[in-house]
Amino acid sequence: MISTPICDILGIQYPIFQGGMAWISDGKLAGAVSEAGGLGIISAMNANAEYLRGQIKIARELTDKPFGVNIMLMSPFADEVAQVVAEEKVAVVTTGAGNPSKYMKQWLEAGIKVIPVVASVSMAKLMQRVGATAVIAEGGESGGHIGELTTMALVPQVVSAVAIPVIAAGGIGDGRGVAASFMLGAVGVQLGTRFLVAKECGVHQNYKNKVLKANDIATMTTGKRLGHPVRSIKNPYSKEYLRLEYSGISDEELEAYGRGSLYRAAVEGDEKTGCFLAGQIAGMVNREQPAKEIIEEIFREAETVLNGATKWVK
Fold first, then answer.
1. Which of 10, 94, 108, 298 is the most exposed place for a label (fewest CB within 10 A)?
2. What is the distance between the alpha carbons of residues 65 and 87, in angstroms, rounded to a whole number?
3. Does residue 75 have a pLDDT over 90?
4. What do you get for the CA distance between the two ends of the chain, in Å?
5. pTM
6. What value, to the nearest 5°, has the Cα angle with vertex 200 and ends 146 and 167?
């Protein structure tokens, strides 16, 4: 069985994280992934302390294994959810959309392992300096908010730049992607889109169907004008957003158009006005499976690929 240093550091069986997806990664999904041997992650998204405490309670009812919380640092509730994870002493905090330095002392004193998502070498180096346990190097193939570099280019540069473990994310959907990530120097992977179709994922069925029906060119990127590019599945909403982005509409009006779109997709299943975030691997996903089955299948394939990695080398 594949085991890497991140398994020992976090006390998990498989070196796989489930991405912290807003309105999707709740206590039920995180608990199922952790119970299956990976690291489940609850998304704190734009929710308040009460919501997060409730989701942590749900996860703890499902598993006694380590799980994490993802904190979106642009959230208006960032300060209070940062306090909640310290009080609850969750095993791991991952962060996105900002710099978590202001919270590091508080989290480290609570015994929390902090693993920020980074999209550049400079941010990875900063996170190492402020005490991060590891970093998640996420390429632009991922769903949701994305950076400029691809996973293939970003991961090896981050691995070369820092001494802490690196988790690869973006464009990874099966064992081949896991094996490739290890070859780039990563010691683990984070998957989001693949877990969208986990049986335990409570996202609206219309959202799952969008992923299951996707092909290789099903996603598009919008939001570059506002400095926060996002990858989502093409639909009437995303196409209209792209049109507005290059029209005479103001930035304020464009932001207003995007408000609530992910909720409408994930919770209401609105196929016309919802934003269905998904990575470029959506076209590789063809069925719903329990989280345990997803993880075991991915690592069986990864072992096969790694065992045969030298078959073409002479």
1. 108
2. 18
3. no
4. 27
5. 0.93
6. 35
